Amino acid sequence: MAHPTLAVPPLAETYDLAVVGGGINGVGIAADAAGRGLSVFLCEKDDLASHTSSASSKLIHGGLRYLEHMEFRLVREALAEREVLLRKAAHLVRPLRFVLPHRPHLRPAWMIRLGLFLYDHIGGRRTLAGSHGLKFAADSPLREDIRRGFEYSDCWVDDARLVVLNAMAARERGAHIHTRTRCLGARRSKGLWHLHLERQDGSRVSLRARALVNAAGPWVESFLKEDLRQQSRYGIRLVQGSHLIVPAMYQGDQAYILQNEDRRIVFVIPYMQHFSMIGTTDRDYHGDPGQVRISSEETQYLLSVVNAHFRQQLQASDVIASFSGVRPLCDDESGDPSAVTRDYTLDLSGTAESGLLLSVFGGKLTTYRRLAESALALLAPAFPGMRPAWTGKAALPGGEKGQSAAELTRILLARHPWLAPDLAARWAASYGCRAWELLDQRNSELALGEHFGGHLHACEVDYLCQQEWAMSAEDILWRRSKLGLFLDADQVASLESYLASRRHPRQRAAR
Predict the structure, then answer these.
(1) Is 460 exposed, middle or buried (0-12, 13-18, 19+ CB in 10 A)?
(2) Domain of 122?
(3) Which part of the chain is the FAD dependent oxidoreductase domain (predicted)?
(4) Rounded CA separation 63/263 (Å)
């Protein structure tokens, strides 16, 4: 049974809050505000998580290296949020052990032990295993001269799916989420913001809001100056981070954190069972954030760091895919891009009588929920009837039963033994307990509908279009899933044809 396309709710005349930007900070603020009883509108000019929020290292972590920069508050807050997100979305956020090879000519062992001791204790760790030293055996994938190291815990997450789940949480509490809708500008008048919007089809609409949140990510400063005609009190520094995807470099589910000669670090993380993800770089970026691409210098940098640590040597021809993002960091005038603070800055201007404007600078994926709480605390005086904070204990969609992906996979296979194990595991990790909505009384693989490759079936495509704002093959293959790594050009073309037939039912009848 095919689902109808996600309906677009009619626009209200006036909202309490309008949010511009569908990355993690925008959807986090929208969800928090909607759950407090505010009427919320969010627009995103592209797809949800189209840019920075789908191009991270996909970690929920405190940031071990931030301790060196004395950012203790940021690390403490991020480590505490690690525990919160494990509870909110146990299917999506999973523990990951990190191996840190020790190279004596870089950081001394005592410094690493001290850093790991702080990392274990300043954030209120409850569920994750602590750190300890390691001696590498002869079968280690690391080079022979690397004999000792350390191990500690952090978490992994599918970043784009975390964004989508927060957008769903916002919608389920009454927020209106509009993708492919660009804010052309906004002006204050009679105590309200008047927003002018353009949809993908060229149609234009207007709405009003009592407060406006600028969560445009890499465009936060340009949106302020060019579209709102406002001055920015803070400068923004765009820092490019790039990652490589290569065939799996080792067996096991541990990740590696590598110390380079320049004192930066590079992660090697298991990815989609068959691959390793290598990243990230840090370099200033001055172009269009929507056109960021990995450079040959970045590729060579990442390969050289990995080759300095692993027995298996990589070359450019081993790279299967890559992705790059631009982190919009608040400019603290640091000379080193990797040392620029990852903390967030919230800039509030205006008044409740004239129309509030809140702009979001910087931030980390891990601390998006705390950022949203801070944003609502600043906006609270304008909304005296607003309900209190609530997101700390509320599950994200799919995480309502608190089950891990492994637990859900076992349940899915026990009740539906005809499901392919890889499919059951991916559905459990992506959709949590809402995977049952994809099954919808289906009792065979044939009933899942057309198969496009990579265990992607029509029933899942329909669900993504109906429930998760997916419109294009790119939305589905690279953000809602990472199945683009498994489909060939003909299979992608078949998916695009199917999506076109959903938009034009007469074409579908002819298939």
Answers:
(1) buried
(2) 65-154+237-331
(3) 16-369
(4) 14
